[in-house]
Amino acid sequence: QLQLVESGGGLVQPGGSLRLSCAASGFILDYYGIGWFRQAPGKEREGVSCISRSGGITNYVDSVKGRFTISRDNTENTVYLQMNSLEPEDTAVYYCAARRTPLLSLCVLSVDEYDYWGQGTQVTVSS
């Protein structure tokens, strides 16, 4: 059974850091591009970051550039999102998603492009 499980969320003060993990089971992550998305209360789900199969291509939404870093360890079947200098506006449920693709360089931030989703992990930035 193909499954994505996020972890690492929590409550952090503004300026703090968290590292989210997205662990895949039931499939080999090498064949999938991965995206991180978030959804705040009353807002649509938005793309935060993506990483290609090879890991060589990454992309970020403008609001997190310079603060968030996405990476992947295919040997561990896991993708990470390092979040630094967190702001209250980053508060949301964070989801990882996977898209099987033959393209090593594909990296997209569109919700509609992904086939498999995790259950989400809550990130709250507050003093």
Reading the helices and strands in chain order gives: EEEEEEEEEEE
Taking all Cα atoms into account, the compactness measure Rg is 14 Å
Query: How many beta strands in the DSSP annotation?
Result: 11
Strand residue percentage: over 45%
Residues in helices, as a percent range: under 10%
The chain-level mean pLDDT equals 96
Largest pleated sheet:
7 strands, mixed
Unreliable stretches covering 5 or more consecutive residues: none
Shape: globular
Task: Count the DSSP helices.
Answer: 0
Ends distance: 40 Å
Class inferred from helices and paired strands = mainly beta
Can you give keywords for this protein?
127 residues, mainly beta, 7-stranded mixed β-sheet, 4-stranded antiparallel β-sheet, 0% helix, globular
